[in-house]
Amino acid sequence: MPSSISLARLAWRNIWRNTRRTLLTLAGIVFGVFFAVLTTGLADATYGDMINYAAKMGVGHVSIEHEQFIEAPSLEHTVQIDEALQKATREDARVAHVSRRISGAVLVATADGNQGVSMMAIDPANEGEETLLFLDEISEGALFARAEDRTVTMGSALAQNLGVGLKNKVVVTATSKSGDIVTAMYRVSGLITTGAPSIDRGLIILPLAAAQDLLGYEPDEVTAAAVYLHDHRDADAVTQRLAGLTDAPSVAVDWKQSQPELASFISMKEVSGVIVQALVMVMLAAGIFNTIFVSVMERRHEFGVLRAIGFSPTELFRMVNWESFWIACAGLLASALLVTFPYLKIAESGLDYSKLIEPGMEVSGVAMDPIMSIGIYPVNLLIIIAVVFLGTMTAGLIPAWRASRTEPIEAIHR
C-alpha cells in the first residue's frame, strides 16, 4: 500500500507527463489571479480613496450629530460636543482625529447679487489637510487664522458669480437657533478651487467661534463632530462604540448613512465586480476540470493496471486529488512570481483613465480622480488565494471519483 508521500510524488510526475497541457492550465490560473488581484486592488484603492475624500469634505468617517440632522440638516438641530466627549472619542486607537463643525444653508450677498450656499464653520487650530481637503485646495489667499476672525474662505466659482475677490466684503444671512434671521459681514480671506463644481460654486467656510456668535450657539454647541479613522473599514465598529457615549438627541452616524449616494454607488460597483470575478473563476475552474478530466480519461488503462496490482479505489482518488493539489500550488506559485512585478508597477504609477470621464465629474460631491490608484487589502488577497486553491481542488473531485471507479479487467481490455 503506497504511502501519502509516495502518492504525492507519483502525482507530481503525472501532471508533467503532458507538459504543454499543464503549462496552459497554469497560465490560466496566472491570468485568473492577475485579473482578480488587479480588479480587487483597483476597487479597494479607488473606493477607499473616495470614502476618505468624502470624509475630508467635512462629514468624517463617523459623525456625532442631532438625530434629525440627516433628514433635516438645519442649523436648529445642534448637539453639545464638550471636551470630555472629544477626549473619550480620541481614546479609541482606531480614531485619528475629532473636529467640531457647524454646517448648514446660508445666503451670501454682495452688491452684485446673492446666492444660497452650503456653509461650514471650523476651528483652524484644530484642522489640517488630513481632516479637511479644502485646506489643500486654496488657490488664492489663505484660510483665516483664528476661530474668532471676521473673514471667510469660499469657492472660487462662487466668488466669481458674486463678483468678489480677496479682501472684498460679503454679507452672510442665516436662520439662528431661535429661528430669527441674522446677518453679519465678513471679508474674503481665501478662494478654493477643488475641481468639483458643486463645491467651487456652493461652499463658504466661516470661523467656528464667529459662526457660533452669529447663530446664537453656546461655546460647545455645533451641528456635528467629525470623527476621522485610520481605516474607514472600522466605521461600523467605531459607530457602535460612540453610540454608547452619546445621549439623545445626539447619535453616531457612519459615512454610509451620511453619504448614501456614495455608499450606493460603491455597493453597486462592488456587486458588479464580484459578478465579473465569479464568471472568470468559473471559467478558470472549468478549464482546470477539463485538464484533469481529460488526463484521467486518457489513463483509464493505467488505472486498471494499478488496481490489478493492488491499488484501492481510495488510493486512486487520493492520487488524483494530489494532482489537483500540485496544480493549485504550482499555479499560485507561478502567479506570485509573474503577477507581483506588474502589480507593483501599476500600484506605483496608477492607471490614467482621464479620457473616459468628463472634467469635474463627481459622485455625491466627490470629484473623480482621473488617475486610478491600486492597493489590495491583505484579507482580500487571502480570499483570492483561498478561492483559487479551493476551486482547483473542487474541480478535481469528479475526475478523482471517476478514477476511483475504474474496474481493472474492463479498463485493461479497453
Describe the structure.
With 414 residues, this protein is an alpha+beta fold. It has 2 domains: 4-53 and 263-413, no CATH class; 102-220, Beta Barrel (Cathepsin D, subunit A, domain 1). It is 51% helix and 21% strand. A 6-stranded mixed beta barrel has the order 3-4-9-6-8-7. The protein has a two-stranded antiparallel sheet with strand order 2-10. A hairpin with a 2-residue loop joins strand 14 (362-363) and strand 15.
Oligomer: single chain
Q: Work out the helix count.
A: 14
Level of helix content? Answer: 40-55%
Terminal CA distance reads: 25 Å
Extract low-pLDDT stretches.
none
Total strands: the figure is 16
Which structural class fits the helix and strand makeup? alpha+beta
Form type: elongated
Total domain units:
2
Q: Radius of gyration, Cα only, in angstroms?
A: 31 Å
Task: Quickly describe the structure.
Helix content is 51%, strand content 21%. It has helices spanning 4-15, 19-59, 83-90, 156-162, 197-200, 208-215, 235-243, 255-258, 260-298, 300-308, 313-349, 378-395, 397-404, 408-413; strands at residues 62-66, 79-80, 95-110, 113-122, 138-141, 151-155, 169-175, 181-192, 203-207, 221-222, 224-229, 250-254, 351-352, 362-363, 366-367, 371-372.
